[in-house]
Every structure is written in structure tokens, then in C-alpha cells.
Amino acid sequence: EQLWIWNFDEERLFYDNYEMVRFQVVDEEWHDQAPAGPSQADDAPPKTPYRIKASMAADGLGVCLWWDGA
């Protein structure tokens, strides 16, 4: 079975794939996607145009079921 288990203070918290979560955006990165000209061909793989870095390491964050009724 594909799932994550977070061991926290002697308690096991389960996170299944596709489960609704709350998270906090920590950072975001924008990368220009302008095409390179023929003389500027680059063999490096292209960067993702937009990337969000997030965390679930705070009170009230993580799997929504963990906090329902809390």
C-alpha cells in the first residue's frame, strides 16, 4: 500500500495518496521560459516555469482528517 506514516510523540499518523491536506506556502520560484535562439542552444534540461515550496510542519496543517473535530 502506498502511504506515508508520520511518527509523532509515540503516535502514528497516516497519510494516504490523494488525501486532502492543508499546507503553508514557504517560497515560490519563477523561471523565464523565453525560447533560446539557435546560437544560444543549451543542452541543460529546462527549469520548471513555476515552482511552489510548501510545508505541512505546523499546527493545523497536514491531512485534514487529523484536525477535523479538534
TrEMBL record:
Family annotation (Pfam families): RNA_pol_Rbc25
Limits of the RNA polymerase III subunit Rpc25 domain: 1-67
InterPro entries: NA-bd_OB-fold, RNA_pol_III_Rbc25
Protein name: RNA polymerase III subunit Rpc25 domain-containing protein
